[in-house]
Design brief:
With 307 residues, this protein is α/β, with parallel strands linked by helices. The chain has helices at 13-24, 39-48, 51-54, 93-110, 123-134, 146-161, 200-211, 213-221, 228-242, 287-306; strands at 5-9, 29-33, 60-63, 74-77, 115-118, 141-143, 168-173, 181-189, 192-193, 247-256, 262-273, 276-280. The protein is built from 10 helices and 12 strands. Strand 1, helix 1 (13-24) and strand 2 form a beta-alpha-beta unit.
């Protein structure tokens, strides 16, 4: 039996981190590719040399080409530019759309059965671009957003209450941008709704911090954006796909009328398995939550319309 093959395009901060996490968890063999000569080769070899200590038999190959990516089961696309302080994710669109088009043209024909995970920002828009460019069915395109945004929301809830991070579950819907919709009503600590454990003003403060979670890191780093939590989030998505776990995770997926939105990649709860998005889950929303989700969808659509 062959191990799953996972390609990571872009060997920068996010790409290298996700490659390392995938190898650590032995989810499959990894091909790391980037346009900068030597960087993917050097990082891949460095990671491989950690294998004897970490006890992982994942093979990690670094390359500047695409031949080695052929027959991948999952392709994680992180290539492109990241935010600097003062920039929104949407400010990246004109540069990154060209990168995504060129990358998808290379990877899609070589791995016609792969699931594509779009990480490059703005990720909902990039998922739509990859959908058009690849000719893949919509279920095999998924964008990163909600898993990371929810992880941030969960972290701040755990910090506020002084409880274990793993006991907190939370949901963030909508586009991966400032209009994302953290759903406090669907957030729990070991099954206890968070509004039984903290005041509304504390919840509002945490929701706001989660919305600004990416910018908070950018403002600290100054030269780039977050990569450890994004890397962990992507790894969770990859794991659910290669192990066909059917986890329910908030991801950017193509909606066809769910939540009153059509023909758009938007953050919604999905079941992730070998076929990518096995199902979009529709949950009941209040009028206010639905309005917030529609505002977020309008934001994604307006960036798409500029292209
Ligand atoms: N969706 C999310 O939740 C999320 C989270 C974190 C980062 N991101 C996004 O991921 C992207 C990468 O972030 P990063 O911190 O790794 O940036 P980075 O600058 O560290 O790495 C980007 C890499 O892409 C490479 N690259 C550029 N053009 C390429 C091409 N045509 N083909 C192959 N490689 C190419 C660069 O050489 C570089 O190594 C950014 O757009 C960032 O905004 C998204």
């Amino acid at each position: 039996m062959q191990r799953p093959k996972i390609t990571v395009v872009g060997a920068g901060n996010v790409g290298a981190t996700v490659a390392q996490y995938i190898a650590l968890k032995e989810l499959g063999d990894v091909v790391l590719t980037d346009i900068v000569e030597g960087v993917p080769q050097g990082k891949a070899l460095d990671m491989q040399e950690a294998a004897p200590i970490q006890g992982s038999d994942s093979r990690i190959t670094g390359t500047n080409g695409y031949e080695e990516t052929a027959g991948s089961d999952v392709i994680v696309i992180t290539a492109g530019i990241a935010r600097k302080p003062g920039m929104s994710r949407d400010d990246l669109v004109s540069t990154n759309v060209k990168v995504i088009r060129s990358v998808v043209k290379e990877v899609a024909p070589r791995s016609p059965d792969a699931v594509l995970i779009l990480v490059t920002n703005p990720s909902d828009v990039m998922a739509q671009v990859a959908f058009r460019e690849s000719g893949f069915p919509a279920n095999r395109i998924v964008g990163l957003g909600g898993v990371l945004d929810s992880a941030r929301f969960r972290t701040f809830i755990a910090m506020e209450l002084g409880v274990s991070y793993e006991d907190v579950s939370a949901f963030v819907l909508g586009g991966h941008g400032d209009d994302m919709v953290p759903l406090a009503r669907y957030s729990y600590v070991s099954g206890i709704p968070i509004d039984k454990l903290m005041s509304q003003s504390a919840i509002d403060r945490i929701v706001q911090r989660a919305r600004q979670g990416g910018a908070e890191i950018v403002n600290f780093l100054k030269t780039g954006s977050a990569y450890y939590a994004p890397g962990a989030s992507i790894t969770q998505m990859v794991e659910s796909i290669v192990k066909d776990k059917h986890r329910i995770l908030p991801c950017s997926a193509y909606v066809t009328g769910q939540y009153g939105v059509s023909d758009l990649f938007l953050g919604v709860p999905v079941m992730l398995g070998t076929h990518g998005v096995e199902k979009v889950i529709e949950i009941e929303l209040t009028a206010a939550e639905k309005a917030a989700l529609h505002k977020s969808a309008d934001g994604v659509r307006s960036v798409l319309n500029q292209l």
